[in-house]
Amino acid sequence: MRAALLLAAVLFAAPRAHAEAGRSAAAFLKRALGARAAAMGGAGTALVDPGPGAPQFNPGGLARVARPSLTSAYLNGYGGVTHGYAAYAHPLPYGVLGTGLLYFNAGDIGLNLSDGTKRTVTSEEDLAWTLSYAVPLPFGVSVGGSYRFLRMELAETASAVSHQGDAGALWRTPVKGLSLGAALQYWGPDIVFEEAGDPPPKTFRYGAALRLPDIDAAKVDPTVDLAAFDMTVAGDVVQTVFESPYQRLGVELGLTPSLMSRIALRFGWVFNRFAEGFTLGAGFKTGRYTFDFGHGDTKTMKGLTSASFTVEF
After folding, report:
1. Domain count, the chain
2. Whole domain around residue 145: which residue ranges?
3. What is the CATH number of the domain that holds 292?
4. CA–CA gap between residue 72 and residue 305 (Å, rounded)
5. Collapsing DSSP states into helix, strand and coil, what is residue 260?
6. What is the pTM of this model?
7. Residues in the chain where the model's pLDDT stays below 70
8. How far apart are CA 133 and CA 117, in angstroms?
9. How far is C-alpha 125 from the geometric centre of its chain's CA atoms?
10. Other residues' Cβ atoms within 10 Å of the Cβ of residue 50
11. Is residue 226 classed exposed, middle or buried when 0-12, 13-18 and 19+ CB atoms within 10 A define those classes?
């Protein structure tokens, strides 16, 4: 009970104000691309098994990767924009090394030039490469950091590059199943196009996750065709520069049918965000392979659909 109360306190500790209009650049970096976390409302800061995509939320979580792993994700966003993401994590004798590549395309727009020429160009096309490293420490703590190289191009005419850094920590507390996490993301100088520039979306996020003890379904009801049942609840508070803090909440229900692989059902909610709301999704794991799907519904715009695939070597 105390663990559940702590999770609720972490989630709602920040002021519940509506988000303000952001004044930072490269907002696409903040989008949750892994379908698992996306289906859980983007609450991934304190998850203890995030896989090679951990640096999206908390580079400290990368230290929990036990086997070489590769993940890829695709997201179809608002107005037809698309995101692609691939990441690889490799455990070393002490620590885990990871790298990731993010691609963003905002779709096409029509230009009417001063000389009367009309043509269609890509409104925005960006690429971000990340190199991360995380190490385990005593008492269930792990810490990590990331370096990010970002290149942005607007209307195929103006471009900018940026160098950023992230840092994060994850703590598996003495309370069984409870973990806490915190991260600083996208810290670096202004992103400058020609002479004008805006800061990157510098973000501080912290959260908690509680995995309830696995239940032996056969002991509860021998007629149920389930070998095990598990449940994880996660909550994050996210604060981006020039914006009000907001909360993310997610739940995962894990089902292990007899003689079959694990199936996960997920749902979540993003609070106090104009363009985000309810999320849901599912996942299926068989052997070394995991398939995940996520969908986010909104009140005003077309929903977000994401899919990801992970393989362990």
Report:
1. 1
2. 2-312
3. 2.40.160.40
4. 14
5. coil
6. 0.87
7. 1-23, 78-80, 113, 215-227, 258-260, 275, 298-302
8. 49
9. 20
10. 26
11. middle
